[in-house]
Specification:
The complex is a heterotrimer of chains A (300), B (290) and C (530).
Chain A lengths: L2 H27 L10 E2 L5 H4 L1 E2 L3 H7 L2 H20 L2 H12 L3 H11 L7 H12 L5 H8 L11 H29 L3 H10 L3 H12 L1 H13 L7 H6 L5 H4 L2 H10 L4 H30 L5
Antiparallel strand pairs in A: 1-2
Helix pairs in contact in A: 3-16, 4-9, 4-15, 5-9, 12-16, 15-16
Chain B lengths: L1 H35 L3 H5 L13 H7 L2 H33 L6 H13 L4 H10 L17 H11 L4 H9 L4 H12 L1 H17 L2 H6 L8 H13 L1 H7 L9 H16 L1 H5 L7 H7 L1
Chain C lengths: L1 H34 L9 E8 L13 H14 L2 E8 L3 H11 L7 E3 L2 H9 L7 H7 L1 H12 L3 E2 L2 E2 L2 E5 L5 E6 H7 L7 H14 L9 E4 L4 H9 L7 H7 L1 E3 L2 E3 L6 H13 L14 H8 L3 E7 L9 H8 L5 E4 L11 E2 L4 E6 L7 H11 L4 H7 L6 E4 L2 E4 L5 H6 L3 H4 L3 E2 L6 H10 L6 H11 L3 E2 L9 H23 L5 H31 L1
Parallel strand pairs in C: 1-2, 6-17, 8-11, 13-18
Antiparallel strand pairs in C: 3-14, 4-5, 6-14, 7-11, 7-12, 9-10, 15-16
Helix pairs in contact in C: 5-6, 6-14, 10-21, 11-20, 12-13, 18-19, 20-21
Classes of the chains: A mainly alpha (300), B mainly alpha (290), C alpha/beta (530).
């Protein structure tokens, strides 16, 4: 098939792409010249173009900083734990909701489960301290009144990890179910009916019909999550973290905030950002490749 | 018989697990609600948990009598609807085209888009771009830079890929154009994911305020979350304010903060129950049969 | 065929809608930019930054209210200068200012920041106007108002690149104790560190507040207001040279980490913590929230704080007396050092740094504006409002009229943020400043505030002045101030047996993360100054 003929048949597809690609070129690629800040001694008054080139000095400075490695390790560690704990949570809840037969309870619990997504981290932080504080936290008040020892949920680094993970699950699991529920809605009902006729049990049905039915969604999310392994939001570790557990709670985003933005050292902040972008993209491509080989699902 | 008992036990476990999760999600919200109806002294003493103490509705009176707050609600709703509508058009256009696996150049387009998930120019070039396009202090500064989220687009693509090719092909054999197939076949089949993505875009816009801090200085264009952020942030920097020597009467009562959280959150919370009807399972069944 | 056509039209329609929305956006943005008048500014124009705290009452905004109009009328019209206020969100001031500076345009002619690091950075990068000649020509009143002592804080490497605001009082900290607990136990008001320790132990064992074992003898947080008085009382008197070299100024605050005695202070904190005499959760309480609750609930026996912090309406003292009508606080000054003096840090005499970007074409107007503000009661008008409507004069000190009408109180909105040349209200003498400060509070608290103000300025330790910025400090400041707090937290919370090891290993980390670099640079700077 010649190009002309191919284009004549598919021109509408390209027409649909015109505006979206324009959007990406103007609003995403347009500002990307800012990346060169990583290689310049950025001066506010000379602007990006006028600042002097310093080559890899910015990178040298970041890579020589011992805190960079600690925060990098913590970022990977917290994201990895999140992947194990927080990634499956919405999937499990979504399947439970899907299996639920009582319609009013289903609708009600869906609506309530996603509320935490709307509460800002500053407010969550306040509530977390009221709940988990060692001296005046509600949980420890309960424990001590039962004659048990108070648990340092926030000031011992290992307990803190649990608090951090649970808060994350609590905040995002309900919201995450929405996507799975949309995917579940797309599964062909006849499959379930056929399985029932065959006499397959509930668990079996979940494993052989439900999960394969939403596999593309799960894999897509997993690939994107792996691409984001090296980037981490600022607010959650910042709000839930504290000085006593900084060994674990200090992550790349808080590191950038400290060395870069607070003191106006955009060069260093951009260097870390560039590092994260390159590694993140590599992670994503690798995950995509592996997934394509193993499951035949991919996003690229 | 045995299986029925097993089923019953399974259902019971689900109900128990979900009830616990629901309670965990509800309690903090109830706490904020309780604070919004409470007096200053019990709040400051940390005694308000799930029920209001020194019950009063002063905070709500104050929120609802603030004309700027009501106007901001109106603006935020308008902004969110406009943003969501444009985002969905753009995302569907791109997602549909790129879901065609054999489209020539698809890989290049996808790669170009995925790169933007990781690399960005940073706030200075973004600010300069917004200024050069004369978008500062207009609603478009809050709309245009976020029109397509690559992440949501990829989700859409993975859904569209699940629609059997047979459907599209049969439509095209019937003489339908590619646009026509999109409108008549694909979109009706994708209601659950379209509803989901609309919700994601809408909530993202509703909750977002970082861009408004940079691009908007006109109070008429302040979204609700920005007002809420100002209020919460103001009490966070109280230490600084003291240093600034004008701390008197700038303390915002906790109950007013809580009432504002409610005012800024409840409208968007109501969107989901309304969208729930699109999540009814089995949309696809009829289509495949037909 | 017709059917096919219809579909195509529909399809094209979709693209058209998308397209038109883009065109539309282009149009409307053009309109609005013309409306906001981005054209060439008239010769006599002045753009002034103003903090937007988002708390302007209904009907007014941070950049358009009674007082901004007062400025436009009385300064602008009179000098034929078109004044415009540019709102900047308070909590994002540094980020937004950085972006504006880097964007090259849109920068106001007068900008300011509290962050000395930001000021030093701008000065170092050559982005600020040298103000010395301008001050000589157009700013004599301003120079007189601020005084040399304040002005020198606005210099970078000897050049006047900024105008620092003047502070009305430099006192920071006082301590407070539950007088009713002391009376119940028949104890005297503690006047030395040792007496305080004994009192705290008595609070712990005898629990005079009947808290059921929840008593916190000394309320503590990881904010300077709570620990500074205690820590500095351990710092040994040193020579002027040692103080210059060993002090580490991080994020505009002097830390005594290398001064002799700091380790003893932390070891003492460790002892208090392990004996259960200070708040268990102090490490989590950077914004004083838990401490405030505990004081309000009557669990805390004594604490240090900013001299005015607990006296505001619905503030800590109000809550305490509402919960415990019998509770009475006394202001005390118990932290004595090796010389028996209650030495404690005070603020530098300056507030924010006011700067004029080099790109500004209106530097003269900018200085004229600041000079205008310092003359003929303009600052007083901006801060206090109208005599008779907002305040009455008592002994030459303005006293607020209570229960203003909404209209009247709206007129005062934003005053503190327009009067940038001063932090607090400033009069001819320090005594007047203090009196005005005390009188701005409610009558029932005026006695204790007067006392706490006196305490906060007794045996003051002034910040170390450096005429040339220490580069390592602006580079590592944020990192190191976090590391110091981390050290204090960790070394305080370990069992006494592990104190030595923990302290030394964290100090080593501190020194290698930039502490040593600062020390070296300060030593060099001192010998240079000589």
């Amino acid at each position: 098939m010649g190009y002309t003929r191919y284009f004549r048949r598919n021109w509408q597809m390209y027409a649909l792409l015109v505006l979206p690609m324009l959007f990406f070129i103007i609003f995403k690629y347009g500002p990307m010249y800012g990346v060169q800040i990583a290689f310049k001694d950025f001066n506010f008054f000379k602007g990006i173009g006028g600042s002097e080139w310093i080559g890899l000095d910015g990178f040298r400075e970041v890579f020589a900083n011992q805190d960079f490695y600690i925060t990098l390790r913590n970022t990977l560690m917290l994201n990895f734990l999140d992947l194990i704990v927080s990634f499956p949570a919405p999937l499990i809840i979504a399947i439970m909701l899907f299996e639920l037969k009582v319609v009013w309870f289903k609708k009600l619990s869906q609506t309530i489960l996603y509320i935490p997504h709307f509460i800002s981290w500053v407010i969550i932080g306040g509530i977390v301290y009221q709940l988990f504080g060692q001296q005046s936290g509600m949980i420890n008040n309960l424990l001590t009144s039962l004659g048990l020892d108070a648990i340092p949920f926030l000031s011992d680094k290992n307990y803190w990890l649990i608090t951090y993970l649970l808060t994350g699950v609590w905040q995002s699991a309900g919201w995450g179910t929405i996507l799975y529920l949309a995917a579940l809605a797309g599964i062909n009902k006849e499959l379930f009916e056929a399985a029932e006729v065959d006499g397959a049990g509930r668990i079996k049905r979940i494993l052989h019909i439900t999960i394969p039915g939403i596999k593309p969604t799960i894999v897509t999310l997993l690939i994107i999550n792996l691409g984001n392994m090296i980037s981490i939001g600022f607010e959650r570790p910042f709000v839930i973290g504290n000085l006593a557990v900084m060994e674990y709670s200090d992550v790349l985003s808080t590191f950038v905030y400290r060395i870069g933005l607070e003191s106006g050292q955009y060069t260093l902040a951009t260097v870390v950002g560039l590092f994260q972008a390159v590694v993140g993209l590599l992670f994503l491509l690798a995950a995509n490749y592996i997934s394509k080989k193993l499951t035949d699902e991919s996003i690229l | 018989m045995n299986e029925r008992a097993a089923n019953k036990a399974f259902d019971t476990w689900i109900v128990i697990c979900l009830t616990l999760s629901v309670l965990a999600c509800l309690i903090p919200f109830v706490h904020i609600l309780a604070v919004s109806f409470s007096g200053t002294v019990p709040i400051a003493s940390g005694r308000v948990t799930l029920f209001p103490m020194d019950f009063n509705i002063e905070a709500y009176k104050k929120v609802f009598s603030d004309a700027a707050m009501i106007r901001s609600l109106g603006f935020t709703i308008f902004l969110t609807v406009l943003f969501t509508a444009l985002c969905m058009m753009m995302t569907v256009a791109a997602g549909y085209a790129l879901s065609k696996k054999d489209l020539k150049g698809r890989k290049i387009f996808m790669f170009l888009i995925v790169v933007t998930m990781f690399f960005s120019g940073g706030i200075i070039p973004e600010y300069i771009l917004t200024r050069e396009l004369h978008l500062l202090n207009t609603i478009w500064a809050l709309v245009l830079p976020g029109l397509i989220s690559p992440f949501y687009m990829i989700i859409l693509i993975s859904f569209l890929a699940g629609i059997p090719d047979a459907l599209k092909e049969s439509a095209e054999i019937d003489g339908s154009s590619q646009f026509g197939t999109l409108i008549r076949i694909i979109l009706p089949l994708s209601m659950p994911v379209l509803a989901t993505l609309s919700l994601f875009y809408a909530v993202g816009r509703w909750n977002g305020f970082q861009d408004t801090l940079m691009y908007i200085t006109k109070p008429e264009l302040y979204p609700l979350q920005l007002k809420l952020y100002h209020m919460i942030q103001n009490s966070q920097v109280s230490d600084l304010m003291r240093m600034e020597g004008n701390a008197v009467s700038t303390v915002v009562p906790e109950s007013l903060k809580a009432a504002t959280v409610m005012f800024a959150t409840v409208p968007i919370l109501l969107v989901y129950p309304w969208l729930q009807r699109y999540f009814v399972s089995g949309v696809m069944t009829g289509a495949v049969k037909g | 065929m017709t059917n096919d056509n219809g579909k195509r039209k529909l399809a094209l329609g979709l693209s058209a809608v998308l397209m038109s929305s883009m065109v539309l956006s282009a149009c409307s943005s053009k309109d609005s930019s013309e409306a906001s008048g981005n054209g060439a500014a008239p010769a006599g124009s002045l753009k002034i930054e103003i903090f937007d705290r988002g708390n302007a009452p209904a009907g007014v905004t941070a950049s358009d209210n009674f007082l901004t109009n007062y400025v436009k009328e009385n300064f602008g019209k009179a000098n034929n200068i078109n004044v415009e206020f540019v709102p900047i969100p308070r909590s994002e001031e540094v980020t937004k200012l950085n972006v504006l500076m880097a964007s090259g345009t849109d920068v106001p002619d007068i900008v300011f920041t509290y962050d000395s690091g930001t000021f030093n950075k701008y000065a170092e990068q050559g982005g600020l106007t040298d103000l010395t000649p301008l001050l000589q020509e157009h700013g004599q009143n301003l120079t007189k108002f601020l005084g040399e002592d304040t002005l020198r804080y606005g210099q970078y490497d000897g050049v006047q690149y900024s105008i620092p605001a003047k502070r009305s009082t430099i006192g920071k900290y006082a301590s407070f104790i539950r007088q009713d607990w002391l009376d119940k136990l028949g104890l005297p008001v503690p006047a030395t560190s040792e007496e305080l320790y004994n009192t705290l132990t008595a609070f712990k064992t005898k629990d005079p507040g009947e808290t059921g074992g929840k008593v916190i003898p000394l309320g503590m947080t990881i904010a300077a207001a709570q620990y500074d008085s205690l820590v500095w009382s351990f710092i040994k008197p040193v020579s002027e040279q040692e103080r210059f070299e060993l002090t580490q100024n991080l994020s505009s605050r002097d830390y005594p980490i290398l001064l002799p005695g700091f380790k003893d202070a932390i070891q003492y904190m460790n002892k208090l913590y392990n004996e259960g005499l200070i708040s268990k959760d102090f490490a989590l309480d950077e914004n004083k929230e838990t401490l405030t609750q505990n004081i309000g609930n009557g669990l805390v026996g004594a604490f240090s704080d900013d001299n005015d912090a607990i006296f505001y309406p619905d503030g800590t003292y109000d809550v305490l007396t509402k919960n415990n009508p019998k509770a009475v606080l006394s202001a005390i000054d118990p932290f004595t050092n090796s010389e028996g003096k209650t030495a404690k840090p005070v603020s530098a005499p300056n507030g924010m740094y006011i700067m004029i970007p080099k790109s500004s074409k209106h530097a003269v107007e900018a200085i004229k504006y600041l000079d205008w503000m310092s003359t003929e009661g303009h600052l007083q008008y901006i801060q206090n409002g109208i005599e008779g409507e907002h305040y009455t004069l008592e002994d030459g000190v303005p006293v607020s009229i209570p229960d203003l009408s909404v209209e009247s109180s709206n007129k005062l909105s934003g005053g503190g943020d327009i009067g940038i040349i001063a932090n607090g209200r400033i009069f001819e003498s320090q005594e007047k400043n203090n009196e005005a400060f005390v009188k701005s509070f409610r009558t029932q608290y005026q006695d204790i505030i007067a006392k706490s103000l006196t305490i906060s300025t007794t045996n003051p330790i002034e910040p170390v002045f450096t005429s040339r910025p220490i580069e390592a400090e602006s580079k590592y400041g944020t990192t190191l101030s976090d590391k110091i707090k981390q050290l204090m937290v960790k070394a305080t919370m370990v069992p006494p047996g592990e104190f030595e090891v923990t302290y030394e290993s964290m100090l080593k980390d501190y020194m290698s993360s930039g502490g040593q670099a600062i020390l070296d640079e300060r030593k060099a700077a001192y010998s240079e100054q000589k």
